[in-house]
């Protein structure tokens, strides 16, 4: 994907040309319905993407929820989507595995490509697509079955019945989700009996058991207490380098602790996208700085 970053005074461009092209307050311009180019940091353009989002627009009926989103999601890194409530973070995340297809009024233009395969190609098998992704929602949703059967569910529905294979995947996935030591002696008990934080880590274990190309986390800690949140954050950090993770979070500290890259969104538009350290310590835009430091949103 070829992403062209705009020229800014900070990068040695012509300040007068810059001020003429970009409004003084981007967020006010966005709120007024103007198209404002995203500020994409140089390091983002150098990544190897697992997912390419290309000029993606989405409407719910007559209301446009996403406006021309173009961004690569790096391979085997954690990428956080941040921004105020209603900015389109979850809509974008749900578009990656086409959950928004379930909404009758949805219309899209543009594309997303998963390892080169067009997600929105009419020939794409949506069921097969979702097998290539793991999805974890805000509220833990373990299936009403045993811990063991929750983890191996994806293998079961693919016809895998070899007990040795299932046992191995169950243990590896629960270890990967930092849950094995807590549940290894009650694998055949109901998953509903686990605590909220354990249930969420079980959902992550269930997702990674299928070896997804991308792991999608939609505010995975929003329904958890601080202790459980800390354990899930530790888990996300452990997944770095092994899985490609795209996480939606409203928690700035969580984004800064767990992610490698961060994208700031506002009213359905990408505003600034860069390494997490760059976004939180040296953002190019004052609007981004105001948001990550808590001065608005």
Percent of residues in beta strands:
15-25%
Q: What is the count of DSSP helices, taking H or I runs of 4+ residues?
A: 13
The major β-sheet equals: 7 strands, mixed
Helix content: 25-40%
Shape: globular
Report the order of strands and helices.
HHEEEEHEEHEHHHHHEHEHEEHH
Rounded mean pLDDT is 90
Return residue spans where pLDDT drops below 50 for at least 5 consecutive residues: 1-21
Q: Tell me the span between the first and last alpha carbons.
A: 31 Å
Number of strands: 11
Radius of gyration: 20 Å
Q: Structural class, judged by helices and strands? A: alpha/beta
Widest sheet: strand ordering: 1-11-10-4-9-8-7
List keywords for this structure.
single chain; 297 residues; alpha/beta; seven-stranded mixed sheet; four-stranded antiparallel sheet; 13 helices; 11 strands; globular; disordered N terminus
Description of the structure:
The structure is a single chain. With 297 residues, the protein is an alpha/beta fold. It has 13 helices and 11 strands. The chain has helices at residues 15-21, 26-31, 89-96, 126-131, 147-151, 153-157, 163-176, 180-183, 196-209, 226-239, 252-258, 276-281, 286-292, and strands at 39-40, 49-60, 63-74, 78-82, 106-114, 117-118, 133-136, 214-218, 245-248, 261-266, 269-275. Helix 9 (196-209) runs parallel beside helix 10. It starts with 14 loop residues before the first helix and ends in a 5-residue tail after the last helix.
């Amino acid at each position: 994907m070829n992403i062209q970053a705009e020229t800014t005074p900070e990068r040695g461009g012509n300040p007068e040309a810059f001020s003429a092209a970009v409004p003084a307050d981007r967020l006010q311009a966005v709120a007024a319905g103007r198209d404002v180019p995203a500020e994409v940091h140089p390091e983002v353009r150098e990544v190897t993407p697992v997912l390419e989002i290309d000029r993606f627009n989405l409407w719910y009926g007559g209301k446009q929820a996403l406006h021309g989103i173009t961004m690569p999601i790096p391979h085997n890194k954690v990428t956080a989507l941040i921004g105020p409530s209603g900015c389109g973070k979850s809509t974008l995340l749900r578009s990656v595995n086409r959950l928004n297809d379930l909404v009758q009024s949805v219309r899209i233009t543009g594309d997303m490509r998963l390892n080169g395969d067009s997600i929105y190609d009419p020939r794409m098998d949506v069921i097969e697509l979702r097998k290539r992704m793991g999805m974890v929602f805000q509220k833990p949703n373990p299936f009403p079955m045993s811990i063991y059967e929750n983890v191996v569910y994806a293998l079961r529905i693919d016809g895998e019945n070899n007990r040795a294979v299932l046992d191995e995947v169950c243990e590896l996935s629960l270890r990967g989700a930092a849950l094995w030591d807590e549940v290894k002696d009650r694998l055949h008990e109901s998953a509903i009996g686990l605590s909220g934080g354990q249930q969420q880590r079980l959902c992550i274990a269930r997702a990674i058991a299928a070896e997804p190309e991308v792991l999608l986390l939609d505010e995975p800690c929003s329904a958890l207490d601080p202790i459980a949140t800390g354990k899930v954050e530790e888990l996300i950090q452990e997944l770095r380098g092994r899985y490609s993770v795209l996480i939606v979070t409203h928690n700035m500290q969580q984004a800064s602790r767990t992610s490698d890259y961060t994208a700031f969104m506002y009213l359905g538009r990408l505003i600034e996208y860069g390494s997490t350290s760059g976004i939180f310590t040296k953002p190019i835009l004052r609007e981004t700085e105001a948001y990550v430091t808590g001065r608005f949103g």
